[in-house]
Amino acid sequence: MSISDSKETTQRMAALHQKFAKIYGHQPEGIWRAPGRVNLIGEHTDYNMGFVLPFAIDKNALVAVRRKTQLDADRQTLDFASTYGSGEHPPITSITFDELVPRAVPGWAAYPAAVLWALNQLEGVELGGIQLLVDSDVPVGSGLSSSHALEVATIVALDDLYELGLSKVQMAQLTQRAENEFVGAPTGIMDQSASLMSHAQHALFLDCHSMETQAVPLPLAQHDAVVLVMDTRVEHSHVDGGYAARRASCEQAAAALEVQSLREVNAVAELEAIEDPVAKRRAMHIVTENRRVLDTVFALREGDLEAVGKLLYQSHESMRDDYEISSEELDVAVEAAMAAGAIGARMTGGGFGGSAIALIKREHIDKVSQAVREAFDQAGYVEPAIFTVIADEGAGKA
Ligand code: ADP
Ligand code: MG
């Protein structure tokens, strides 16, 4: 069973309905759901037009929305509220359409506002005022893409309510535009695609150049295996420099090789033509990572989890040594998990903090979790949050 139809989600939906009515004095027109994601493998390859293999997880953002009517006094304003960290009385952030200016909306409301902004740019689309309340259990800033869960839940809701008829690819592209131009985070297209296009018990093999997808069955149950998330509780931030710097290095490497994107590079030997040693190492990660994604898809289809595990760990080494986006905490989590018998482990998401994942036998959940906790304790880090995730269905009406 996926979380989308679990008892817990039903309870959260009922509570969200009530809270919406209390805050806004009206019933919402509906509730929409969008999951966070784990990236199994294929890191920073999306903006290099390469391959990624994420899956949606059983943690999601729920948004309740109501379109305002003639009877609403302020029918042209956009009202946003979130249950996150706000106790019984979430404050409402109200903005007008005139205030929908890139990088001008402060705080978390920039994410749903960005989606409205992107939709409003579309020919023939005219949105009115709305009331929106979000309730998400995707941990914030942990590299599981809580920001995209919020954006995707918002776009799915608006697509439905305003009968826009957008395709999933269009919604992915619009939320990317929203995040890049309005919020100001130079992220790729993987996260929103994972949230929109994933299927339960499958990973999403996405070609970020053609936007073609394949649902790849995850043979975890057959092998009594699970994916464990180890959240370091060190928040990453994409709006800051590290991510943008990696993008710039990749562009530099592509320019040196006279290709449109590093996707076009198939053999590591071709990288010899890059003079700058940093750009060369960054490109090395991208080229080898694309290969590892293809190999992982093959190994999953063969049911060879040992091979998948090796690829996950190689991916981690590549991110640690060549792409340099890991952190001490992520390395400690990965090494402790491996030493305690994980089949494979790697940091996941943009890096510089956030979460690592481990592919482990179900019977090793306690052993691996304990080993990681102890390693963190010994290193003097804050206690990590450790939990298993299941591959869930992508976004839709809840
Ligand atoms: P990640 O997407 O990996 O969790 P980001 O830094 O990209 O980390 O996004 C986190 C931001 O998304 C938060 O700082 C907040 O602005 C917004 N956000 C995520 N979830 C919620 C929520 N439930 N309520 C309000 N804002 C949220
Ligand atoms: Mg994010």
From TrEMBL:
This is Galactokinase. Residues 114-198 form the GHMP kinase N-terminal domain. Pfam families: GalKase_gal_bdg (PF10509), GHMP_kinases_C (PF08544), GHMP_kinases_N (PF00288). Coiled coil: none annotated. Keywords: ATP-binding, Carbohydrate metabolism, Galactose metabolism, Kinase, Nucleotide-binding, Transferase. Its EC number is 2.7.1.6. Residues 299-377 form the GHMP kinase C-terminal domain. The keyword Transferase applies. One of its GO terms (molecular function) is galactokinase activity. Belongs to the GHMP kinase family. GalK subfamily. It comes from the Bacteria. It is an enzyme of class 2 (transferase). The keyword Nucleotide-binding applies. Residues 18-67 form the Galactokinase N-terminal domain.
